[in-house]
Structures are given as C-alpha cells and as structure tokens.
Amino acid sequence: MNESIHKYFKVGLIQWMSHPRKDILESVRQIAADDFFDAIEIGPIKDDEKRERTKVLLQQSHMTVCYGAQPRLLGTGLNPNDLNEEGRQKAEQTLLDAVDEAAALGAKGIAFLSGRWLEETKDEAYRQLLKTTTSVCRYAAAKGMNVNLEVFDFDMDKAALIGPAPYAARFAADMRCRCSNFGLLVDLSHFPTTYETSQFVIRTLRPYITHLHIGNAVVKSGCLAYGDLHPRFGFPDSANDVPELTDFFRVLKDEGFFNEKNPYVLSFEVKPWDNEEEDIILANTKRVINRAWAMA
C-alpha cells in the first residue's frame, strides 16, 4: 500500500499481552507516548487508584480505548454458555461489571469470548450464550456502548463454542435480530486454529465484523507454544508471518474494510515467550506490520 495504514485503521495492541510483566501505569504510559498506536485494549484493573490514574493517562493520549473482558472469564473459569444457570449468571454478572469498568476507563465497548461446550449439549449451550449476550448488549446499549464477541478455536485450545466462522455467522445473525450494538471480533492468529483462511473467515463474517486482531499461532502438535498462545511473528514452527498478514490486508481491502472516515480498530495480540524481551517483541511486530502493509 502506498498510503499509511493509519489512514484506514486505528492500530492498537492488547496491553496485558504485550506487557505481561510491566506495571499497568508504566505500560500505559509507554504505549501512550508511542504515536505508532492509535488504540489500546485494556483489561481489568483491580486496584482502584491505579485504575483512576490509568484513566487520566488515557484521557491525555488521544487514543481509542477498548476493553477486553476475556481475562474475567479465562482467569476464573466462568462460562457465559454454562448449562448451569447459576454459573451462567455469574459469568453474565462479571460481563456487566466489565461494561461498568470499561465505561469508567473511557472505552466505548467490551469484548469477550464464549465458553467451552460439549457436542451433545451444543444447542443448549448456544441458547445460554444468546441469553447472556443479549443481557450484556442491552446493558451496554443503555450506556451507548458496543459488545464484541471474539471468535476462538473450537477444538484445539480454548475449545470455545464460537467457534468456526459459519457458526459464528449464525450466532451473529441471531444477535443482530435482538441487539444492533453486537458485533464479532476476528483474529488472524485464530484462523490457523480453526483450520480456516483469511478469505473464508472475512467473507463469511463480513456483515458482522466490528473489530480486528492480528497475531501468530503454533498449530503443529508437539511443538513449542502449541495452541492459542500468541507467540511473536517468526516463532519456530508457527503459522503466520509477513505473507499471511499481507494476504489478510489484501482480503480486508477487497472486502471493503478500508474505511478512512470511520476506521476499524486493528490491534495486535502478541506475547513475549518465556524470557523474550517485551520491547523487542513490540518492535518485531511493528516491522512485520510495516512490511506486510507495504507488500499488500
């Protein structure tokens, strides 16, 4: 591309992934001071004082603030499609709390993921997820906020109900009949884990995609970092690098996602592996984005 990526996308990162060892204030300050980033995705902040100080930094930054509620579920085992109604309600409540925390931080929406499922109870789990998501969407709508469901693998690591792209499309269509503030978050790093391509996922989910992630994954069984662990680009035996990201950008362009008037947030979800240095992994990712964009 001859034009800047920042013309068509708000480039962001998932803060807790990129800086897993940094203090939240140190991390946000570093990211906010880097004009490569137009957006930042923040997770739960338990400390009230740090949350308030983080809000002040974000207000100064002129970045789009997004909120990821995934750690509220993954870190606790809560399941928004839990067949046990008490368990489902607990998951719903933490997502309602996430909407409140997101609003306090200046975010305009939240993202979350579906929970684990079993084939024999899949339809019931689907109905439970509809119930949870509808409740969260209606609560968020009253605050002028959006809700994004992230599409994950269905049988490799997270084993989430949503799921392969056609099933995600079905769920999104059902949700849009109920709530207009619902959308899907798709992540390049998950395409190999669902055995799908950029073209297939983007074309299948096009009407419902409201948020984008990019990253990498290892899907060769028995290899280091196997599963949904978001290693750096260029990691041994991994699935995505410059060619795959270049293809992703080309598909997005072909499918009409280049929107200079209302750019989509496009964040990278890349995590240092073992003792890798956070700032070097950040620079690695920027280089891959710049090269893939130039080649697209």
Task: Based on the model shown, name its key terms.
296 residues; alpha/beta; eight-stranded parallel barrel
Outline the structure in words.
The chain is an alpha/beta fold and about 300 residues long. Helix content is about 40%, strand content about 15%. The chain has 10 helices and 8 strands. The chain has helices at about 15-20, 25-30, 50-60, 70-75, 85-105, 120-140, 165-175, 200-205, 240-255, 280-295; strands at about 10-15, 40, 65-70, 110-115, 145-150, 180-185, 210-215, 265-270. An 8-stranded parallel β-barrel has the order 1-2-3-4-5-6-7-8, surrounded by 5 helices. Helix 5 (about 85-105) runs parallel beside helix 6. It is globular and about 50 Å long. The mean pLDDT is about 100.
Summarize the structure.
42% of the residues lie in helices and 14% in strands. It contains ten helices and eight strands.
Order of helices and strands: EHHEHEHHEHEHEHEHEH
Number of strands: 8
SS element count, helices: 10
User: Which class do the helix and strand fractions yield?
Assistant: alpha/beta
Percentage of helical residues? 40-55%
Summarize the main sheet.
8 strands, parallel, barrel
Low-confidence stretches: none
